[in-house]
Every structure is written in C-alpha cells, then in structure tokens.
C-alpha cells in the first residue's frame, strides 16, 4: 500500500449504528483518520461529486479507493494495516466465529429486527423527509401504523437473540465473545446492534429486557463501551473535514491498492474492462454504481468510475456478499 494511514477518511453521520462499527474499530486499533460528517438523509452532494451512487453510510476512502459496506471496510482495514490487527492473533476457530457473528447480525435478522423497534413516536419518524428517505432506503413502509404493527414480532425475535448470547456465548462468564483478553473482531461484529437498540429510549420494554433478565449481555455491552471510551482517550483525535475538503483530498490522492484481478473462473463470466453495475440487495438497492470492471474476486468487486472533478477516476469497492453485479447491456454469465 502506498498511502499512510492518515489518508483514511470515514464518511458518516454520528448516530449511524453501522458507522459506529468502524469508529470503534479505528479507536481500538489507534489508527489515525479523518472524518467527513454528512446528513442522515439524501442528497449527499459531496459523495455524489466523487462519482459514488451508493447511498448507505458509512463509506471509507483510502487515497482514491472508496470502500462500501462495513463488512468490506473492516476486512480491508485488517489486511491493509496488519500490524496489531484485532484478528491477527486469532485462531482459525475464533476467526470463523467472528465471521459467523457478522453474518448473524448483518444478514441473520438481528439488526433488521432492532430497526423495527424504533418507537413510532420518535420525532425523526414523524419527519416527512426522513420517512420518505428511509422508505427509499429500506424498500418498505415507515408509516406509524406499520411500525406499531411490526413491533411484537420484532420483540419476540429479540428475546431469542438476547437469549442466544446470555445462555450461549456468554454463559460461561467470559468477558469477551471470543474468550480473548480484550475486545476482538468477534465483539466488533456482534455488539453493535445490541448497543444501538439498548440506547434507544422506549425500544425495549423493561419487563422483557433488563440487566436483571440478561445480566451477562448488559454487562458485556457496558464493558465494550468502556473499552472503547478508554481507547479513544489515547487514540488520535480524528480531523473533521468539510465536504469540499473530502472531494479535494480523495480526487488528488493516489490509489491505495494495486488493481485487483478479474477472476476468469467467476460464474458471472464478466471480463476485465467491461462496463458493469453493482448494488446492495437488502437495502439501498435503488442506487446503482456503474463503471469499468477492474477487479472481481470471491471477496469483492471493484470498478473505476469518473468523479465530477475534472473527470478524475476513482475506484469503488463493494463486497460480493449482499451485492449483485451485472453487465450493463447484458452479457456475461457462464451458467
């Protein structure tokens, strides 16, 4: 990698539960970075100026490489900055556990169920602009009546999720999910939706969820929060950039990574240099990024796209998991 760690820029808004995963990770690692704070709803003109259509938050740039989705962002930070990586000393079983927990919280229903527990009387829910934006994001109704109707089922699911931790992974009294001496990737991947929903007043009724009912879960979340707070005291303070500074820094930088290869055996049958588009399949799927295919592996897809700054080219990376990739105008597919 050709760029130093202070070329990392995290684009987020402060109450994004996904962005917290990255903020926590960077603090625990002590990796210096800059941040650009954006609005919680569209439009986000500075991201658009970079040539990025992806609407979810956060995104992270290192040089002129832009990474979408926290699953890929964390994977890249672990691999591009390997010294003292949180997963560096993990056994294969610990690494596998962390990966399974990430799938559980992101794709296995934990966070979507947490999202259904936002109380219908929260002021943001009553904001027409926010409601319209989140309906575009989620592809489902955010009407107050629908939120109320979905709450009992979400609470039933959450009892199972809390029970899985209380009576399973934390049952033996361990401090951290992976049985480690300090927070590890297993904690990063699993704690974030529980931390988030516990912090929303009125989300969890106290007769079903409390420190008395789930003492190990509540203690684990509090312990993790304290560990992050302690790490932030010694970690470099992030520099906050304005949107114009973000665009200038990214478009004037060098690429951080060598071009990834295009796997000729990939079942999609796509070719290097082919125009493709990709988008997430669960949320934010109305916004598709399009560009020249320069990388396609089991892990990620990489395209080159033009920014709106003098035609400067950026590389946009997305994970294969949870994303769809297709050729523009047809073509591809070996099967």
Put simply, the count of helices is: 11
Low-confidence stretches: none
Main β-sheet: number of strands, strand sense, barrel status?
10 strands, mixed
Globally, the shape reads: globular
Strand line-up across the major sheet? 5-2-1-3-4-9-8-7-6-10
Residue-averaged pLDDT: 94
Strand content: 15-25%
Produce a short descriptive summary:
The protein has 335 residues and is of the alpha/beta class.
List the helices and strands and how they pair.
Elements lengths: L7 E5 L4 H13 L4 E4 L7 H5 L9 E4 L2 E4 L1 H11 L11 H15 L3 H6 L7 H4 L1 H11 L5 H26 L15 H14 L16 H20 L4 E3 L1 H9 L23 E6 L8 E8 L3 E7 L6 E7 L3 E5 L8
Parallel strand pairs: 1-2, 2-5, 4-9
Antiparallel strand pairs: 1-3, 3-4, 6-7, 6-10, 7-8, 8-9
Helix pairs in contact: 1-9, 1-10, 4-9, 9-10
Give structural attributes:
335 residues; alpha/beta; 10 strands; ten-stranded mixed β-sheet; 40% helix
Can you describe what's shown?
The protein has eleven helices and ten strands. The protein is an alpha/beta fold. The protein has a ten-stranded mixed sheet, sandwiched between helices. Helix 1 packs across helix 9. The longest helix has 26 residues, at 144-169. The model has no long low-confidence stretch (mean pLDDT 94).
């Amino acid at each position: 990698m050709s760029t130093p760690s202070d070329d990392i820029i995290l684009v987020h808004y402060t109450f994004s539960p996904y962005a917290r995963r990255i903020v926590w990770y960077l603090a625990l690692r002590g990796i210096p970075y800059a941040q650009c704070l954006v609005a919680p709803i569209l439009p986000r003109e500075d991201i658009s100026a970079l040539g990025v259509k992806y609407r979810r938050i956060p995104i992270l740039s290192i040089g002129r490489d832009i990474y979408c989705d926290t699953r890929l962002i964390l994977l890249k930070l672990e691999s591009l900055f390997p010294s003292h990586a949180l997963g560096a000393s993990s056994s294969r079983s610990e690494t596998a556990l962390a990966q399974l927990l990430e799938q559980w919280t992101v794709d296995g229903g934990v966070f979507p169920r947490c999202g259904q527990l936002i109380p219908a009387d929260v002021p943001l829910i009553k904001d027409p602009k926010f409601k319209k934006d989140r309906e575009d994001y989620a592809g489902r109704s955010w009407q107050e009546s629908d939120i109320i109707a979905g709450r009992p089922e979400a609470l039933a699911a959450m009892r199972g999720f809390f029970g899985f931790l209380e009576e399973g992974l934390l049952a033996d009294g361990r401090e951290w999910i992976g049985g480690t001496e300090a927070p590890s990737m297993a904690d990063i991947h699993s704690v974030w939706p529980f931390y988030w929903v516990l912090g929303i007043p009125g989300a969890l009724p106290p007769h079903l969820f409390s420190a008395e009912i789930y003492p190990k879960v509540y203690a684990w979340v509090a312990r993790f929060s304290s560990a992050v707070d302690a790490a932030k005291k010694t970690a470099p303070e992030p520099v906050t950039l304005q949107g114009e500074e973000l665009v200038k820094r990214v478009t004037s930088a060098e690429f951080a990574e060598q071009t990834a290869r295009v796997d000729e055996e990939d079942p999609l049958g796509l070719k290097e240099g082919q125009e493709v588009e990709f988008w997430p399949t669960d949320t934010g799927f109305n916004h598709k990024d399009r560009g020249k295919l320069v990388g396609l592996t089991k892990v990620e897809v990489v395209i080159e796209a033009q920014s709106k700054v003098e035609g400067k080219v950026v590389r946009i990376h997305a994970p294969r998991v949870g994303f769809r990739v297709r050729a523009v105008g047809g073509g591809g597919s070996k099967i």
